[in-house]
User: What shape does this take?
Amino acid sequence: MNAGRAVMTRPRDVAEQSAGHAGTFIAFIRNVTCTKPGSEAYHRRMNMRAQEPTDEQLVRQALTDRDAFAMLVERYERPLTSYAARLIGRQEAEDVIQQAFLQAYRNLAGFDPHLTFSAWMYRIVHNTAVNMARKRHGTVPTELELDGETVEILTGDTDVPAEALRQELEGAVCKALGQLDQRGRDVLLFSVVEGKSYSEIADILMVAVNSVGPTASRAKGKLRKLLEQHSAAQEIQPRGVEHG
Assistant: This one.
């Protein structure tokens, strides 16, 4: 058998095996790499971890070594799940992540070395979430699922009343984000919440890097204006109710 051909097809072979596995793809990857302490495979994996390989090194190793891909899953499963949950909701985020990692594993041989693995995975998760939402619901959700920490990050430099209830504030932020255009919303979340650089955002969304900054600024400005309008409305409403 041609060695190069074996390397190119192995990820797809494993992915096809996992399709009929009782668990999920990620669980399958974990199970097949599970070894007993003291075994040769266990020591090999521990040595790999000790070397602290870069993502790109792991991608190359993952073409022939499932342990390497398992390390990539460990590194990115949590942040990618949080991102997917913000886009499509926690209930469907797990399906998005399963599909995204499966797609990445199948296409390791085609990984673009000019991209970071992080940008590549976020692009896959983003596209998977958008496509799943359109397929299941006919549209992409405009009201995102946000936790308290995300709301705090997004409202850190806005004039929001200190006495505002957290639940009310979360609702206001979700509504305001829903009024942004999709590109502005995506750029804002990647920049402010995910902490991605403009270069990474350009790679993820496949846009010109010099367009990311202006898009982020416009989105921040509109979000700030919408939240200030909400704040003003909340200050006026109680007085109107009292005099009613």
User: Anything to note?
Assistant: Residues 1-9, 19-23, 236-244 have pLDDT under 50 and may be disordered. The first helix runs from residue 3 to 19.
